[in-house]
Amino acid sequence: MVLGRLAMFVALFASQLGNAAVVKRSELFDGGECGEEAHAALRLAFHDAIGFSTSGTGGGADGSILAFNSTELAYVIRFESRTTSIDDIIARQWPVFTKTNLTAGDFLHLAAAVGVANCPGSPQLPYSFGHSVTDILARMADAGFVAAEVVWLLASHSIGDANKIDPSIPGTPFDSCVNTLSHCSDTQFFLEVLLQGTAFPGNGGQSGEVLSPLAGEMRLQSDFAFSQDSRTACFWQEAVNAQSFIMGKFEAAMAKMQLLGQSGLTDCSDVIPVPATFTNNIQYPASFNQSNVQIACTTTPFPSLATVAGPAPTVSPVPQS
Ligand SMILES: *[C@@H]1O[C@H](CO)[C@@H](O)[C@H](O)[C@H]1NC(C)=O
Ligand SMILES: *[C@@H]1O[C@H](CO)[C@@H](O)[C@H](O)[C@H]1NC(C)=O
Ligand SMILES: *[C@@H]1O[C@H](CO)[C@@H](O)[C@H](O)[C@H]1NC(C)=O
């Protein structure tokens, strides 16, 4: 029963990430019992989270106990001498985890919450998805950036392309606004990350990549997570077709980043060429409309956009210099 629930949750969250998850019913929790495995999953979640220290070391509830099990277990050993069942549950969870395409943090804390639900009389534990977002926001907060600024900095992906994620398709862009030589610095990226993903470009799905909506386009798992997470979804949506707003915010966040830990620099901005402007409204790629948008911000209406005419495009790679 409960394993059915785990499989369902994993399928649900993984499908939010653009993947169909397959976790067999009998794979965890002694076949659905409130037994040693359910208890051990909870202990694992505890040790993962308590590895966090307010003095700045340790990542907290990030799944690192699972992902970096050999180094993190050293800490558990200092904390508590009986570690046998921690080793055992890591060994049991590892093969299931690697099949789910979830981040270690999302998987481990999901497994604990579902495992505890096997036990009559236990509370229904809350579960928050999006540990990669939590990790990135925490790291950026430590450097002085708030969630909105992290989203604005991701405007950089509108002019980015991936070379290493799938080495078989170097120069694969993250949005469709590319011409023969270059990207455009517009907000098409923020729109396209929200479109339902249907396929992987190149050689199948790679680590850090989720399904993208257009042939020849790559979507990063972390970009999609930011677009859907309640802490960042409205900042993401706010960027769609807001060219001058995003130009200003991106510039300010970049300026802040350049000055981190620096002092006494001389402002030489006048040596930087003035970029060409982009004033058009962005449009849905041909064949898409608002019914394809995975809207995650419900407090403001989604902007109304036209659709490019014709059949769905195939995005060309950016030539490598
Ligand atoms: C620990 O993680 C590695 C991958 O880094 C994995 O191969 C190994 O099986 C894990 N150990 C256990 C006990 O699960
Ligand atoms: C995980 O991703 C790989 C590559 O994208 C895919 O082949 C596999 O089916 C996915 N697994 C699940 C459980 O979604
Ligand atoms: C989107 O396009 C589909 C056909 O591709 C159409 O059925 C649907 O009404 C359109 N939805 C919107 C909101 O325009």
UniProtKB/TrEMBL annotation:
Binding site residues for heme b: H157
Enzyme Commission no: 1.11.1.-
Domain (Plant heme peroxidase family profile): residue spans on this chain: 125-240
Chain positions of site Transition state stabilizer: R43
Residues bound to Ca(2+) 1: D48, G60, D62, S64
Disulfide linkage: C34-C119, C234-C297
All residue ranges annotated as the Fungal ligninase C-terminal domain in the record: 246-319
A GO biological process held by the record: response to reactive oxygen species
Cross-referenced Gene3D superfamilies: 1.10.520.10, Peroxidase, domain 2 (1.10.420.10)
GO molecular function, one term: peroxidase activity
Main enzyme class: oxidoreductase
Cofactor note: Binds 1 heme b (iron(II)-protoporphyrin IX) group per subunit.
Catalytic residue positions: H47
Pfam families given in the database record: peroxidase (PF00141), Peroxidase_ext (PF11895)
Residues binding Ca(2+) 2, per UniProt: S158, D175, D186
Cofactor field: heme b; Ca(2+)
Signal peptide (UniProt feature, chain positions): 1-20
Keywords: Calcium, Disulfide bond, Glycoprotein, Heme, Hydrogen peroxide, Iron, Metal-binding, Oxidoreductase, Peroxidase, Secreted, Signal
InterPro entries: Ccp1-like (IPR044831), Haem_peroxidase (IPR002016), Haem_peroxidase_sf (IPR010255), Ligninase (IPR001621), Ligninase_C (IPR024589), Peroxidases_AS (IPR019794)
PANTHER family noted in UniProt: CATALASE-PEROXIDASE, THYLAKOID LUMENAL 29 KDA PROTEIN, CHLOROPLASTIC-RELATED
Family listed: Belongs to the peroxidase family. Ligninase subfamily.
Protein name as catalogued: Peroxidase
Provenance organism: Gymnopilus junonius (Spectacular rustgill mushroom)
